[in-house]
Design a protein that fits this description.
Elements lengths: L1 H4 L5 E4 L15 E5 L2 E9 L9 E7 L10 E7 L5 E6 L8 E12 L3 E2 L5 H16 L2 H21 L6 H27 L5 H5 L1 H23 L29 H8 L9 H11 L4
Parallel strand pairs: 1-4
Antiparallel strand pairs: 2-3, 3-7, 4-5, 5-8, 6-7
Helix pairs in contact: 2-6, 3-4, 3-6, 4-6, 6-7, 6-8
This protein binds flavin-adenine dinucleotide (FAD).
């Protein structure tokens, strides 16, 4: 934990596999006990920043007995372990965030098992709740709404009569109202008792509403700017660092880039369709 807090050790998340995304419990990467080690074989995919990560926290199959969820364990694996190969996937925004990670006879000490064997699904579900609340991205939205102000200023100065300021203001107002309702949900989640129904369920609508809002904000800038969206930089753009260092940045380099990357926000951390399915079952009882 201290290394995570001070940023000196960078982690990636090894859950998804080809064929096991929404249906994560079907995952097949196998960890077989041999003495004091697990021997891991299989493949992960869409692993964000695996190419720069020091460690990966991984869901692995340790048993084929019972329900698929009951045979999954949570392993911590040093990315320098022999037998790990990382291959890049370039996404639609042109960046390299994503990877495939292959494991061939990777030996992982049993002491790197988190909690109990075959109970990894429970830990992963708990973490996913926090991840989804984070992906809702209220901070990103605050930045985005401020960025839209710079778009407005730019168009007011440069576009003359062709700039439809009223249409922009109407869409901006609608986004601001949606942001306020998201903030209320976030406050409810923050004050919810740990382990209560609210604490487990609220991240789902937060993720769904927040990511749709992020996409709609990006689309507004893109629609209004047209071709200029490829060159107009976000107001608080921070230049990225090299490909081999952590390159999360507060904002995208331009509005086209942001619009393209935002396509993924309703997919990662669990797709909107699947979140809505869970909500309709557990909240509405459908
Ligand atoms: C940018 C990005 C970063 C990511 N980072 C990571 C990471 O670091 N680590 C990691 O482990 N994973 C990561 N992922 C993977 C992500 O979690 C999966 O992409 C996601 O869970 C969806 O799985 P899938 O891609 O296999 O799509 P599928 O599950 O095949 O879904 C395809 C389509 O079918 C729909 N669908 C599937 N099941 C249902 C259902 N039951 N009801 C209704 N609709 C359904 C989905 O909504 C979707 O539209 C990342 C993905 C992206 C795009």
């Amino acid at each position: 934990m201290p290394h995570i807090l001070d940023g000196s050790r960078f982690w990636c998340q090894g859950y998804s596999e080809p064929g096991s995304g929404s249906d994560l419990a079907s995952l097949r990467t196998a960890a077989v006990r041999e003495g004091d080690d697990f021997v891991v074989n299989g493949q992960k995919i869409w692993t964000t920043q695996a190419h720069i990560a020091d460690w990966i926290f991984c869901l692995v199959r340790t048993s084929a007995e019972g329900k698929p969820q009951e045979g999954i364990s949570f392993l911590l694996i040093d990315m320098k372990t022999p037998g790990i190969e990382v291959k890049p996937i370039y996404s639609i925004d042109g960046d390299h965030h994503l990877n495939e990670v292959y494991f061939t006879d990777v030996r992982v000490p049993v002491k790197n098992l988190v909690g109990n064997e075959n109970e990894g699904w429970t830990y992963a579900k708990y973490l996913l709740g926090h991840e989804r609340a984070g992906i809702a991205g209220t901070d990103i939205i605050v930045n985005g709404l401020a960025n839209l102000k710079t778009v407005h200023d730019y168009l007011s100065e440069t576009a003359g009569d062709s700039y439809q300021a009223d249409a922009f203001a109407k869409r901006h107002a609608e986004l601001s109202v949606r942001y306020e309702s998201l903030q209320m949900l976030e406050n409810r989640a923050l004050f919810a008792e740990e382990g209560s129904g609210d604490s487990l369920i609220l991240p789902l609508p937060m993720k769904t509403l927040g990511t749709e809002l992020q996409q709609d904000m990006g689309d507004l800038a893109y629609d209004m700017l047209g071709a200029d969206s490829t060159v107009l930089f976000s107001a608080d753009f921070e230049p990225t660092v090299g490909d081999n260092e952590p390159n999360y940045r507060a904002t995208a380099p331009n509005h086209t880039h942001a619009m393209l990357f935002n396509r993924a926000s309703t997919i990662f951390g669990g797709t909107t369709e699947v979140q809505k399915g869970i909500m309709s079952k557990f909240v509405l009882g459908l």
